[in-house]
Write a structure and sequence with these properties.
The radius of gyration is 19 Å and the shape is globular. The longest helix has 14 residues. The two termini are 27 Å apart. The chain is 35% helix and 23% strand. With 275 residues, it is of the alpha/beta class.
């Protein structure tokens, strides 16, 4: 574990204890324990159906855990008496789809949640919107409508919208999976800058180059459990478990990506709600 990770864990920003999540009879998460320190970047990887996106959605209670506890900034989100809306204001979330309002300009997409949720006045909301559009390199698109933007630009607007709320933690759920390959780089560049600024980030991704270069830790999930948790060099460069090696060989070498019917570690077996 890196020195940054060791120091960060002394000030855990996200803490998950004994987390279980079931959809009917389908148990997607099977007792997850995870800590992410302040300023730490953790990439969560794993096959489809491993539970990684469900874990991410449980962190801000978009999915309610069946059992276990979730803490953000020391506050327990799973406490029945918690003010969940107040805690969620500290958490930014970026999804696979951009979820921009098509009838609003880029600036209006950024100012609307600020005014409605944070009760900021029009002038301040516009100022914060402009600052965050500059952070993602889209100042010139402030008056544009989403339909005139590329997918990569729309995702960068979605990131700016999340940042405009002043989050302490950013959650990314496969933020580049819906993009054409040539548009991925600009989005990842914005995420790299956020990491360099010290933003606490939990990223569900298949972008192994990003995970290698930016993550402080990589978590590999399969079958609803954490199989490996360590530095990128440990988990991606020299995995200890056969399940991890099998997944990475398929991901990094498409020629090996033949579905192996009936094997317990089959990638893509049994798509789960929320992945």
């Amino acid at each position: 574990m890196s020195e940054k990770s060791l120091g960060a864990l002394a000030r855990a920003e996200i803490e998950v204890r004994g987390l279980h999540k079931s959809f009917g009879d389908n148990e997607v998460l099977r007792g997850i324990d995870l800590e992410i320190g302040q300023g730490e970047v953790v990439c969560v990887i794993g096959p489809s159906g491993s539970g990684k996106s469900t874990l991410l959605r449980c962190v801000n209670l978009l999915e309610e855990p069946s059992k276990g506890q979730v803490f953000v900034g020391g506050t327990e989100l799973t406490d029945p008496d918690v003010d969940i809306d107040a805690v969620r204001r500290r958490i930014g979330m970026v999804f696979q789809q951009f979820n921009l309002f098509p009838h609003l300009t880029v600036t209006e997409n950024l100012t609307l949640p600020q005014r409605r949720v944070l009760r900021r006045d029009k002038a301040r909301a516009a100022r914060v919107a402009a600052e965050n559009l500059e952070r993602v390199g889209l100042s010139e698109k402030a008056a544009a409508y989403p339909s005139s933007l590329s997918g990569g630009q729309q995702q960068r607007v979605a990131i700016a919208r999340a940042l405009a709320m002043g989050p302490e933690v950013m959650l990314f759920d496969e933020p580049t999976s819906a993009l054409d390959p040539e548009l991925v780089g600009d989005v990842l560049a914005v995420m790299r800058r956020l990491a360099n600024e010290g933003m606490t980030m939990m990223v569900v991704t298949h972008e192994m180059t990003f995970a290698r270069e930016v993550a402080d830790r990589v978590v590999f999930m399969d079958g609803g459990v954490i199989v490996e948790d360590g530095t990128p060099a440990q988990v991606i460069g020299s995995p200890r478990h056969e399940r991890t090696r099998h997944f990475l060989s398929r991901l990094l070498d498409p020629a090996m990506a033949e579905v192996e019917e009936g094997t317990p570690d089959q990638v893509g077996k049994a798509e789960q709600p929320g992945d």
